Amino acid sequence: MTDAQTAAPEILRAHAETAYADELQALAAVDDRPRPPSWRLSPWAVATYILGGTLPDGTQVSPKYLGSTRLVEIAVASLATDRGLLLLGVPGTAKTWLGEHLAAAISGTSTLVVQGTAGTPEEALRYGWNYARLLADGPSRAALVAGPVMRAMESGSLVRVEELTRIPSDVQDSLITIMSEKTLPIPELNAEVQAIKGFNVIATANNRDKGVNDLSSALRRRFNTVVLPLPDSLDQEVEIVTTRVRSLGAALELPADLAALSEIRRVVTVMRELRAGVTQDQRTTLKSPSATLSTAEAISVMTNGLSLAAHFGDGSVRAEDVAASLVGAVVKDPVQDRVIWQEYLETVVRNRPEWKDLYRACRDFETSN
Predict the structure, then answer these.
(1) What is the CA radius of gyration of the chain?
(2) Which residue in 5, 104, 219, 288 could disulfide with 110, CB within 3.0 to 4.6 Å?
(3) Taking Cα atoms as reference points, which of 264, 285, 302 lies closest to residue 348?
(4) CATH fold for the domain made of 10-227
(5) Which residues contact residue 210 at a Cβ distance below 8 angstroms, ignoring those fewer than 6 apart?
(6) How far from chain centre, in Å, is Cα 354?
(7) pTM to 2 decimals?
(8) For residue 278, what is the DSSP state?
């Protein structure tokens, strides 16, 4: 076999603690501030890792989250208390992204995750059993299969619970004892697991998802809630989209050019205007489609355009490369949203001379479909 055949396969998306290992090591080397129990870095160093900056030795730390410094500081400080952290916001506000990087910086691992769905069982938040050993030997610690929450308690680490409000309410409440008593009872063994210092929970939730199960007041009290807003300005959102698309393009090895940011700015402008229900100049009122049209959607549109330009174009992202994905992002409801999109095309896009190519590309796509 050749060296290429025996080489380890490349990872499509490395965990945060792997992708940014150099930055985490550099921060640890200069970090001389007090650290809470089991934390790999001090709260100051964690915030610096998230927000970016220049270290005393000249090392540049790239920003992972472009937003309010104070919100990040509040999130980090919350995790140093006995209350969990609930990152709340509409889809696409980087809740999962921020939670992953917080876990990587504080605990050195972001892999202790429970993915919330309508079918998430109680075992996902507690523990399960190896039924072969359970039938052979009866209930024992060897037959018990620890879940992410239990492993985090035993190691003094952070555990992430994604989309907490998607989990049925009775399953959600399994966290109450864990978060208030810092104990996980195992009644089958007449035993319990007590959390090591450093254990805490980062949960995410959004209020626009269908099938949301509101948190009980008892569980909500166990969390400090930080609401992540959509980007304040067009320039900030363009910067976020550009940074993420360049990162994804490099990871996917897409040989396309993003030097000209005009397409990103136009895509972000479209989404901000439809999201707000008014044009940037405040002169034209618009109807908003059913889609959220978040920053994450803009990133998806541009990444797909990057792929089209790389594989079926000349490597430069143009209007025709983003048109299909842009229409797909806006038109989720084929009846109601299509009317809103057509109206926006004719009353806004068509009347902007510098957007003629985008108007033509979107119209051509609509005609061909």
Answers:
(1) 24
(2) 104
(3) 285
(4) Rossmann fold (3.40.50)
(5) none
(6) 33
(7) 0.88
(8) B
